[in-house]
UniProtKB/TrEMBL annotation:
This is Phosphoenolpyruvate synthase. Keywords: ATP-binding, Kinase, Magnesium, Metal-binding, Nucleotide-binding, Transferase. Residues 13-302 form the PEP-utilising enzyme C-terminal domain. Transmembrane segments: none annotated. One of its GO terms (molecular function) is pyruvate, water dikinase activity. It comes from the Archaea. The lineage of its organism: Archaea, Methanobacteriati, Methanobacteriota, Stenosarchaea group, Halobacteria. Catalyzes the phosphorylation of pyruvate to phosphoenolpyruvate. It comes from Halomarina halobia. The keyword Ribonucleoprotein does not apply. Belongs to the PEP-utilizing enzyme family. The keyword Metal-binding applies.
Length: 311
């Protein structure tokens, strides 16, 4: 790692640097919204819905059975609203439900979950959502209510998408609950090599953004289980294959005017930040504690690019 020449003299609470690349923040639970907002981040790059559901200790199906559909929708509305209020008008990218069956199995109602040998390759993310539209539509209904309340800073992000078919089916369901996809900001996570390789077609289907989920993109590109300690040493988000998929995807997205972002853990790593800014990514979303450092790293890389261009 390069040493930072300003390390010792930098003020404790420096002014937030202005950068062309936006620096956003990942928010895991609504309770962290305030702490995330005061970092000065340009928005939320990832708000995971599953923590709002998992914290009720019930699977979605079980929650709906016990409390009714409306209570389920309101649970999501209230969780997202806490964050959307704190950040308004800065954008908040909310990811639809993406918990693997082995996580759902721990909860009430978990006995109904399918047993899978490879949950990470299985029934999760957009696959499950599209297979259970009656449950997925409640999530979309929550977004519709938020839009009706005026939260136009809320964006919809779809996890584990593989191809344009996934995108078009999700788009249709949005329309069915009364969301106009042409008026709202929505997009996909790039978490599989398939999605990186098919990004051009998906751009043509009307997505506004593509966000790299490097935790999964690394796992699936390198065939290294992210939860398996025996291969943990091989889990490398900076592997040339992962970087090539990311770089090529950003280039295609730029041609199609699709906004690009990263919301995986690697977005908090200086080396990844340098690579992404050089590729021309639109925004980087980091953990709350890393936002300040990423802001400064982005500034440094942008200044260097600017100087290189005029020399
Ligand atoms: C990712 O895959 O990088 C990501 C952000 O999603 P999760 O870690 O929730 O799978
Ligand atoms: Mg993921």
């Amino acid at each position: 790692e390069e040493t930072d020449p300003l390390e010792d003299v930098r003020p404790k609470n420096p002014v937030k640097p202005m950068t062309a690349t936006e620096v956003k923040v990942n928010v895991s639970i609504p309770e962290a919204a305030h702490r995330a907002a005061v970092t000065g981040a340009d928005g939320v790059g990832l708000l995971r819905l599953e923590h709002m559901i998992l914290s009720t200790n019930k699977t979605p199906e079980c929650y709906i059975r016990d409390h009714g559909e409306d209570a389920y929708v309101e649970e999501i509305v209230e969780g997202v609203r806490t964050v959307a209020d704190e950040f308004y008008p800065r954008p908040v990218r909310v990811r639809t439900l993406d918990a693997p069956t082995d996580e759902f199995r721990q909860l009430q109602g978990g006995e109904d979950e399918p047993k899978e040998h490879n949950p990470m390759l299985g029934y999760r993310g957009i696959r499950r959502s599209l297979d259970t539209p009656e449950v997925f539509k409640h999530e979309l209904e929550a977004f519709r209510r938020l839009y009706d309340m005026g939260y136009d800073n809320v964006e919809i992000m779809l996890p584990l998408v593989n191809d344009v078919e996934d995108v078009l089916r999700a788009r249709r369901l949005m329309e069915e609950v009364g969301i106009d996809p042409d008026k709202r900001s929505w997009g996909i996570m790039v978490e599989t090599p398939a999605s990186a390789l098919c990004i051009g077609e998906m751009a043509d289907a009307g997505i506004d953004f593509a966000s790299f989920g490097t935790n999964d993109l690394t796992q699936y590109t390198l065939a290294v289980d992210r939860n398996n300690e025996h291969v943990a040493g091989r889990f490398d988000e900076l592997h040339p294959a992962v970087l090539k998929l990311i770089g090529d995807t950003i280039a295609t997205c730029r041609e199609h005017d699709v906004n690009t972002s990263i919301c995986g853990q690697a977005g908090s790593k200086p080396k990844m930040v340098r690579y992404l800014v050089n590729c021309g990514i639109s925004s980087i979303s980091a953990n709350i504690d890393a936002v300040r450092d990423v802001q400064h790293e982005v500034k440094r890389v942008e200044q260097k690019l600017l100087l290189d261009s005029v020399r």
